[in-house]
Amino acid sequence: MPQVASVGKSTQILYADDEDDLRVVVTRLLARVPDFEVQDVNSGAALLARLADPACKPDVILLDVMMPGLDGLETARRVRRTDQQTPIIFFTANAELTEQWRASDGPILGTLKKPFDPDMLALDILRMLGRQLSSDPAAPFPE
Predict the structure, then answer these.
(1) How big is the chain by its Cα radius of gyration, in Å?
(2) Which of 54, 81, 87, 123 has its CA 20 to 30 A from that of 1?
(3) pLDDT in tens, 98-136
(4) How many angstroms separate the CA atoms of 95 and 65, rounded?
(5) Is 92 helix (H, G, I), strand (E, B) or coil?
């Protein structure tokens, strides 16, 4: 995996996914990236509750689309009612569902597909955020 160039400020990621095993894997993968700090929750409702805390100010929200109860699309719509700025990335095995997102629902940074390449997940998020990689693309992430 290529190494991320440090920008001095950590990137706060708030990740919601109802699949416990996947959430653990993704959180661990992203936590290996220098300057990434990941908080994870298991539902859309839990994400909204976390965002209600004034101390929670994520730089990006990574949001599973297919969750029971409050799905990712409705969760994102509720986030957008009060926050038009925080980038949201949909994370889904069924990208066709994101076609239900309307421009009038608010801005979305993009969609990442499941299954995903573990070596590329962090890089894909960084690219979506416009972050740069280090000059040595062969340098590994720290273990």
Answers:
(1) 15
(2) 87
(3) 777 877 788 889 899 999 999 999 999 999 998 754 434
(4) 9
(5) strand
Helix (H, G, I), strand (E, B) or coil at 120: coil
Give Cβ neighbours of residue 94 (< 8 Å, ≥ 6 apart).
65, 66
pLDDT classification of 8: cutoffs 50, 70, 90: low
CA–CA separation, 93 and 98 (whole Å)? 10
Residues 81-102 have pLDDT tens digits of 999 999 999 999 887 777 778 7
Q: 3-state DSSP call for residue 45?
A: helix
Q: Does the bond joining 54 to the residue before it have cis omega, within 30 degrees of 0?
A: no
**Which stretches of 65-126 are assigned E, i.e. beta strand?**
88-92, 110-113
Question: How far apart, in Å, are the Cα atoms of 116 and each of 28, 57, 62, 119?
Answer: 14, 26, 14, 9
Count of C-beta atoms within a 10 Å radius of residue 96: 8
pTM for the predicted model, two decimal places: 0.85
